[in-house]
Amino acid sequence: MDPLDALRNAISSKPPYCTGTIPITDDNGVVYYRKQEQAGWLDLSRATEGDLEALVQACEPATFGLEQRDVLDESYRKAWKMDRTNFAPRFDIGESHLVERIRAQLLDARDNTKGIKAELYKLNVYGKDSFFKSHKDTPRSDTMFGSLVVVFPTPHEGGALVLRHAGQEWTFDSAAVLREKEQRSMAYIAFFSDVDHEVTVVTSGYRVTLTYNLFFESGESDHPASDVVPVAFKDTVFQTALTSALEDPNFLPKGGCLGFGLSFKYPIKRGQSLTSLRKISKMLKGNDSMIKHVCEQMKLPTTLNAIYQDKYRETKILVDEIMNMGDGEIEGLLDLLAEYPHNGRLIYDYGEEPPRTWHGPIEERSIGILWVTPLTTYSHFNSPYVHYGNEASLGCAYGDLCLTVKVGPYENRRGSIESL
Ligand SMILES: O=C(O)CCC(=O)C(=O)O
Ligand SMILES: [Fe+2]
């Protein structure tokens, strides 16, 4: 197989989510709640119709974010919500070891000390005819990477979570999963927040969930997920494909630059400081993290870059730092970005002629890239990324980034591969 095709195949589509079940114990289905002066509680592991109706009475209709506003529109989302100031679940996220499971199953399995925080967000009730159409979850800060939904075993039908990403689709029918379990359990699903997802119509009963926002935390966790068997990453396949490519004298014979369009989006704060790309490179998800790990292990210099286009969409510029662009479009992008510290370079496809512009000699300020995975969209740092979100946009937007990997000429890399 052509080495480039082998590399592409090796970046297989690991699903952007993980799921599982948690056994019900004496009290982990109990939720206390209040509405103004009234208080109540129920046990969601054995709730009656009356308990659930009382819970709904204490909830409010659920809104969602449409660009900058929170809106109530029952043709887009029909459900109830309770804010976290108004309820307290007995379910203890720490005791459940869910964070360790998410670290092992969803994130890079080897990085089992990465600090993760799960912050309780809402209680939601989906009754008969409830649903939530396709949306992405609004990033609440630049360290938020995912969402976690815990579904209680209240009898219901429908209300499956359908996820779509990069042309693929997955369905998690928690009601069916819980119905089939012998031991009474809760179900959970954690997914990256930039994945499109929808809740299908509940046809009977009540679907009650807790939602959590997942954040990376700086500092290392003291509890590596030692008892959790990680879902294997396809990193050995990628490493093998990359080794074969480097051993092939026809593959970038004179050396060059490999480009990987990322599989996921990352929240970029508006007006973010210049060092932010380095910070983001520590928070890569799924395949993106795997590519970086493997390349670094193989001693290939790997950088996370951002790409900007000029006003006329003719030139694309690769930079080492995110630029604080404000809201306007930039005309003399190349002039601006070539300056320190952005180190902007004009990009063109490997094998083609470097572009000619009116900017004098261009060679040293341009770079040919052999794209292993394509860049699908370009940077939109100055516009809110989430159109339909679960909350109105906060100060973050997702931007499009790429990893670039420097590969030496064939002559030089022979020795280094053998010594691996
Ligand atoms: O209930 C679910 O499974 C997902 C809900 C959701 O997408 C949200 O609240 O943003
Ligand atoms: Fe959502």
UniProtKB/TrEMBL annotation:
What residue intervals traverse the membrane?
none
Q: Which residue ranges does the record assign to the Fe2OG dioxygenase domain?
A: 117-218
Keyword list, A-Z: Iron, Metal-binding, Oxidoreductase
Q: Does the keyword Hydrolase apply?
A: no
| UniProt cross-references to Gene3D superfamilies, sorted A to Z | q2cbj1_9rhob like domain
According to the UniProt entry, its GO molecular function terms are: metal ion binding; oxidoreductase activity
Please indicate if the UniProt record lists Metal-binding as a keyword.
yes
InterPro entries reported in the protein's UniProt record: Oxoglu/Fe-dep_dioxygenase_dom, Pro_4_hyd_alph_FE2OG_OXY
Q: Which family does it belong to?
A: Belongs to the iron/ascorbate-dependent oxidoreductase family.
Q: What is this protein called?
A: Fe2OG dioxygenase domain-containing protein
